[in-house]
Amino acid sequence: MVAQTVARSSRSRSRPAQIQSPLLVNFFRPRQILLILDNCEHLLASCATLSAALLRQCAHLQILTTSREPVGVAGELHLARPRRLQCQTDEPLAAAELRQYAAVELFVTRVQATLPHFATDRRECTNRSVRICARLDGIPLALELAAGRARALPLDIIADRLTTDSTC
Questions:
Q1: pTM above 0.90?
Q2: For the chain, which end, N or C, has fewer CB atoms within 10 Å of the first or last residue's CB respectively?
């Protein structure tokens, strides 16, 4: 499945019935290219198998993977954990204290970029923002994505979904 998706994304002109790995090797071998495999934890074995085959045979290929756990391929160079921003989780914040926490500051700034009328002087907005930031562990990309959802969903719904969803 991973090989088929990479073949389709790279436009390597393979047919679905063909074996993907040899075709991808032929496609990537002459190219100096960065292949990005995102969210590998869901298909870790397939990503590892494909990555190992490609890296073994394509000297100029580099692969960047994102995953909650290492892919486990020989030559895996760098494991980076996302930097977490500081966030208050113990008690609700007063609106005046909101901006002292980097996670809340980032989230509110991003929400205001898409919703200029968003006001943090109301206690419920402050508390919801803090709940969202705490649930997302202060991870900047997660905060950015949640702030983008604020265009379509009220903060209380975003916060409730994060609270009840155990897969985050």
A1: no
A2: N
